[in-house]
Amino acid sequence: MAPIPTPPAEPKDSPEGYVGLDAAAAERLARQRGWSTVRSLPPGAIITMEYRVGRLNFEVRDGRVARAWKG
After folding, report:
1. In angstroms, how far is CA 46 from the centroid of its own chain?
2. What's the rounded Cα separation, in Å, for the pair 70 and 53?
3. Domain tally for the chain?
4. CA separation (Å) from 20 to 2, 3, 28, 51?
5. pTM
6. What CATH number should be reported for the domain holding residue 36?
7. E strand intervals along the chain
8. Cα Rg of the chain, angstroms
9. Range of the domain at 44
10. How far is CA 13 from the centre of its chain?
């Protein structure tokens, strides 16, 4: 039986720190801090609920991050 892979560690970064930032600047900053995937979503977007290690999600309103969460 093959060993279960160990996922990489997530960046030691708080999603709340991105709220209020310009969406493009927030995405650049998140990538610099080590997030492998950054996804910007409009308010009310329908998304899947699977958790992905290393992914940071932004809800963007009027070009600014209104909400941010891991997974």
Report:
1. 16
2. 8
3. 1
4. 44, 42, 14, 24
5. 0.85
6. 3.30.10.10
7. 37-41, 55-61, 64-70
8. 13
9. 16-70
10. 10
